[in-house]
From TrEMBL:
InterPro entries xref list: Glyco_hydro_43, Glyco_hydro_beta-prop_sf, Glycosyl_Hydrlase_43_Enz
GO biological process terms, semicolon-separated: carbohydrate metabolic process
Signal peptide start and end residues: 1-27
One Gene Ontology MF term: hydrolase activity, hydrolyzing O-glycosyl compounds
Name of the protein: Endo-1,4-beta-xylanase D
Organism the protein comes from: Paraphaeosphaeria minitans
Family per record: Belongs to the glycosyl hydrolase 43 family.
Keywords, comma-separated and alphabetical: Carbohydrate metabolism, Glycosidase, Hydrolase, Signal
CDD domains assigned: GH43_XlnD-like
Site (described: Important for catalytic activity, responsible for pKa modulation of the active site Glu and correct orientation of both the proton donor and substrate): 181
Length: 523
């Protein structure tokens, strides 16, 4: 279960909607992939929080149309319910607009089981979506079963898309590659390629100018195998500084070991066959598991890249329970890609709290929601309210801002950060973990939530309705709490018993607002 507040109407959100509307209005007026320069967004991660949209989604691919960033994912449910595709657009990678049902199985007469892994492309004033459908297995096409990779076309990025062929574009196994998980790439010379393949095999083929039929290679073949070593599925091609980067997913898509690797070549055709890849994205026991099947956003005219991918929250075990995330992708001087670090941040400027969960369960929306780019938490009793992320950090640096709403000398009235939290029950103060709290009575304290013992310091200048910066450094046996002045801790504690657990915020018998949350593994 995840809770989220309603998107707050704001000037920035209005601008986001306006940008998308303008993109739709102008969609058929140009044949240029980038008729408008998108906003140059220079983030370290999705700093308004990952997942960046609500809902179960997977297999994202990306595009930039009329200066707007687009993400096209799979709706991640069991196959019988996976009958439609949604899309998301944003002018700034913070404020996202959902475009529901851009393509459904009702629009594709031969798609009866499921559609997934959409890949966008644009050419000659038309928008294309390539998709997998029906999950055909080897030998089934010969038995009359229909399925594979289809293609649909529209006049606008958000559709509606209609089936372009009335049949699969690729409806059979070639070189043992299951026809799924396609990526479409148009090179600088105008040649379009489609990369695809499941069941451990990958192919590439050349698309003609119409984008719905194939050209042949010089040797007369249509499909060339390019399978790298340990390849499972999900190819993605990227061109940078004249080099071609083939990314792919390894491992099983339902397991925690799903990961992304890549290899580099001087040609869009490789050689990639048999090449061992370098792993750049994999599970992090503190953040998420099952991270893979990626797309890439390149901000045109810059060297800013983002890897967009799906992952599974730590507490989720269902294979379909996947969410959309992105993090910054950096390159070394030699052109190699640095390993991706899944960062945890949320400055709430999207007006939402996707990924946060309220305890006691059922407290939201009264217990917690986003107001004016702050997570506002209300607790009317000393038993408290905890709002937590599905994380599992041990050694960490945990930062946030907090505004306490009222002045009180009551020791039971406070707000602050919780960390190392395990098994939150219906009564938050009886959980295990630590709480670094602030009180307008001038107290800063660390409480062991497991036994209720506290260490405190008094006489600290903590005013109501003023934003205070709080940091927790929990490294080894040392737990330190900093307030405003990050040079010297207000207090320290022997935390030799502190263990891995969730991170969050807590409020006891008052209201408080939190912002600029950042949690990093301490090295």
């Amino acid at each position: 279960m995840r809770t989220s507040s309603k998107l707050k109407t704001s000037l920035r959100a209005a601008l986001a909607l306006y940008a998308v509307a303008m993109a739709s209005a102008n969609a058929t007026d140009t044949t240029d992939d980038y008729p408008q320069q998108p906003a140059i967004v220079n983030y370290t991660t999705s700093e308004a929080g990952n997942p960046f949209v609500d809902g179960w989604y997977a297999d994202p691919d990306t595009a930039i149309y009329q200066g707007v960033y687009w993400v096209f994912p799979t709706s991640s449910y069991v196959y019988d319910q996976q009958t439609y595709l949604d899309a998301f657009s944003s002018p700034d990678l913070v404020h996202w607009t959902k475009h529901a049902n851009i393509l459904t199985t009702k629009d594709v007469t031969w798609a009866t089981k499921a559609v997934w892994a959409p890949a966008p492309a644009f050419r000659n004033g038309k928008y294309f979506i390539y998709f997998g459908a029906n999950d055909i297995q080897e030998g089934e096409p010969e038995q009359g079963f229909i399925g594979g990779i289809g293609v649909a076309v529209a006049d606008n990025p958000q559709g509606p898309y209609v089936d372009a062929l009335g049949k699969p574009l690729i409806g059979a196994y070639n070189n043992s590659a299951q026809p799924i998980d396609q990526d479409v790439f148009i090179d600088d010379d105008g040649q379009a390629y489609i990369y695809y393949g499941g069941h451990g095999h990958a192919n590439v083929a050349k698309l003609k100018e119409d984008m719905i039929s194939f050209d042949t290679f010089e040797d007369g073949t249509t499909f060339k195998e390019i399978t790298p070593r340990d390849y499972a599925e999900g190819p993605q091609i990227l061109k940078r500084n004249g080099k071609y980067y083939l990314m792919w997913s390894e491992g099983g898509w339902t397991g925690p070991d799903y990961q992304v690797s890549y290899a580099v070549a001087d040609s869009p055709l490789g050689p990639f066959l048999g090449v061992s890849g370098t792993t750049i994205l994999q599970q992090d026991s503190a953040v998420a598991k099952g991270s893979g099947h990626n797309g890439v956003i390149h901000v045109p005219g810059t060297d800013i890249y983002y890897i967009v991918y799906h992952r599974r929250p730590l507490s989720e075990n269902a294979g379909e329970h996947r969410v959309l995330c992105y993090d910054r992708m950096y390159f070394n001087e030699d052109g190699s890609i640095k390993p991706i670090k899944m960062l945890v941040k949320d400055h709430f400027t999207d007006g939402d709290m996707v990924g946060w969960k309220v305890y006691p369960e059922g407290s939201e929306p009264e217990g917690a929601h986003v107001v004016d780019n702050k997570l506002e938490v209300k607790s009317r009793s000393k038993s408290g309210t905890i709002v937590a992320l599905d994380t599992n950090f041990t050694d960490q640096l945990y930062d946030a801002t907090v505004i306490l709403s009222n002045s009180s000398n009551d020791f039971g009235t406070s707000a602050g950060l919780v960390f190392g939290v395990k098994n939150v029950p219906s009564v938050p103060y009886k959980t295990k973990g630590y709480y670094a709290g602030l009180s307008t009575a001038g107290r800063v304290f660390i409480m062991n939530l497991g036994d209720g013992t506290s260490t405190l310091v008094e006489g600290v200048d903590i005013k109501p309705d003023i934003e205070h910066h709080i940091r927790v450094s929990a490294i080894g046996a040392n737990i330190s709490v900093f307030v405003d002045d990050l040079t010297w801790p207000r207090l320290t504690l022997d935390g030799s018993n502190h263990a891995a657990g969730m991170n969050g915020v807590a409020v006891f018998n008052m209201e408080a607002k939190f912002g600029n949350v950042s949690i990093a593994e301490a090295s």
